[in-house]
Amino acid sequence: MAKITISRSVAGLRYPTLASIKGRSSTIRAEFIKSVIPEIIPNPMEIEEALAVLQQNEGSLCCSYCGDTPTEWDHFFSAVSNKMPTGYITEVYNLVPACGKCNQSKGATYWNDWIRGRANLSPTSRLSNGQLNITEEQLEVKIGLLKDFEEWGKAKITKLDFDSVSGHEFAEYFKSCEELIDKFADYEKTAIALKTKVEGTLRKRS
Q1: Quick count: other Cβ atoms within 10 Å of Cβ 177?
Q2: Cα–Cα distances in Å, from 203 out to 3, 187, 193, 195?
Q3: Can you list the pairs that 22-30 forms with residues at least 24 positions away whose Cβ atoms lie under 8 Å?
Q4: To 10 degrees, what angle do helices 169-205 and 25-34 make?
């Protein structure tokens, strides 16, 4: 049965996005995980010390990975990997200034593997495509500073064992999340079936 399709661009303007129940599952899972990850707000002296290791200060910030204008703090070691918390938390020893492109591209990959790799939007990838405003030598300097940052935080950084903190409670918590996502998949099937009926009614009218 043919489906009614609508161009995503009409008269040069973006058409409203089609809703997807299952499409929200990754967001739901991420929020379940982020909700249990502690955060420690750094004081001004701690921020100054961390930035100094990266040879930056609050008056002249740049992305620690590529040198572009930063927009956010990135977890140096990812707080989430393979749909589970890694044990790293949100604290000054695990945060570096970053641009959105680098933060999005890096994901849960170890920073040194990613920065030298060819992942989409990685500094090495953008440099080879002429999309980065620094040289290879300058990128190597940044990598050296990031190594210094990793060494600086090694003895201070927090890494929790969530299971030892609360026994089986975390396992039950994440199990309930996956059960909710399974329900989302069932709702999606029902929604598609209902939408097909609505589309059939539209075709009859036309």
Answers
A1: 19
A2: 10, 24, 16, 12
A3: 22/184, 22/185, 22/188, 24/184, 25/181, 25/184, 25/185, 28/177, 28/180, 28/181, 28/184, 29/83, 29/177, 29/178, 29/181, 30/80
A4: 160
Q: Where are the domains of the chain?
A: 39-159
Under 8 Å CB-to-CB from 188, ≥6 apart: which residues? 20, 21, 22
Rounded (to 5) percent helix, strand, coil in the chain: 50, 10, 40
- The 3-class secondary structure across 127-187, one letter per residue, is HHCCCCCCCHHHHHHHHHHHHHHHHHHCCCCCECCHHHHHCCHHHHHHHHHHHHHHHHHHH
Q: What is the pLDDT along the chain (206 residues), one digit of tens a residue?
A: 444 444 567 777 877 776 677 777 878 888 888 888 999 999 999 999 999 999 999 999 999 999 999 999 999 999 988 888 899 999 999 999 999 999 999 999 999 999 999 999 999 999 999 999 999 999 999 999 999 999 999 999 999 988 787 668 888 888 898 898 899 889 889 999 998 999 888 888 86
